[in-house]
């Protein structure tokens, strides 16, 4: 099946892309407006861009003809936090996605505890296993939507998901993070993990010489 996205309307493009690019991590973003009012909302157009410098990216759409509160707050303040969503917090996360009227504090509606950051003036979700303090590196407007590239200034990691403090290893399964799938409202949790170390050029050449390369290429998972 070949699909030319230029032939489709916006909702159809959104439907296809969000069903195909899965699972997507969820950024539980806390932001503040110019008066200091707090906003909490989840976004799944989110990922890591670079480890050095430490950059993440977030895509934020519009509400009607206006930017969402999160995008406006980030543009005004230049800083925000991203908390990752663990499975026990699924209901709280979903409540923060409700389209509340202006002035409603989503953290109160969802029973969230917000902890102060150390490097910026915006708090983070204390129930989260991992959170990032972020400063805007670059903000782009694309068809009224916001693409935010931010530098991670600091992290908060819950002690029970630290596997090795000396070597900075985290326990991925212990985080039990939610990820977004397709609409309407589908999510997933981590599947059984497997390890597949990256091959060196020497290893790959040796596999070709020994005849193991073809079997390796056909090897799947499951």
TrEMBL record:
Domain of life, per lineage: Bacteria
Database matches in InterPro entries: Flavin_Rdtase-like_dom (IPR002563), Split_barrel_FMN-bd (IPR012349)
Segments forming domain Flavin reductase like: 19-176
The protein's required cofactors: FMN
GO molecular function: FMN binding; oxidoreductase activity, acting on the CH-NH group of donors, NAD or NADP as acceptor
Pfam families for the chain: Flavin_Reduct
Keywords: Flavoprotein, FMN
Membrane found in the keyword field: no
Family according to the record: Belongs to the flavoredoxin family.
Annotated protein name in UniProt: Flavin reductase family protein
Source organism per UniProt: Achromobacter pestifer
């Amino acid at each position: 099946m070949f699909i030319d996205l230029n032939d489709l309307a916006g909702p159809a493009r959104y439907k296809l892309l969000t069903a195909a690019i899965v699972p997507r991590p969820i950024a539980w973003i806390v932001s503040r407006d110019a008066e200091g009012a707090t906003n909490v909302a989840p976004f799944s157009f989110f990922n890591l861009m670079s480890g050095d410098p430490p950059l993440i990216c977030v895509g934020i759409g519009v509400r009607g003809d206006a930017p969402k509160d999160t995008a406006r707050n980030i543009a005004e303040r230049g800083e925000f936090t991203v908390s990752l969503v663990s499975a026990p917090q699924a209901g709280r996360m979903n409540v923060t996605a409700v389209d509340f009227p202006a002035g409603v504090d989503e953290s109160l509606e969802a029973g969230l505890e917000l902890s102060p950051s150390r490097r910026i003036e915006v708090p983070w979700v204390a129930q989260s296993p991992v959170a990032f303090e972020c400063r805007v590196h670059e903000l782009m407007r694309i068809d009224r939507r916001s693409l935010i590239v931010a530098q991670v200034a600091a992290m908060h990691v819950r002690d029970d998901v630290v596997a090795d403090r000396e070597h900075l290893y985290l326990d991925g399964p212990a985080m039990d993070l939610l990820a977004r799938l397709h609409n309407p409202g589908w999510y997933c949790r981590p599947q059984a993990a497997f390890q597949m170390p990256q091959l060196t050029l020497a290893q790959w050449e040796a596999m070709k010489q020994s005849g193991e390369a073809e079997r390796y290429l056909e090897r799947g998972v499951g």
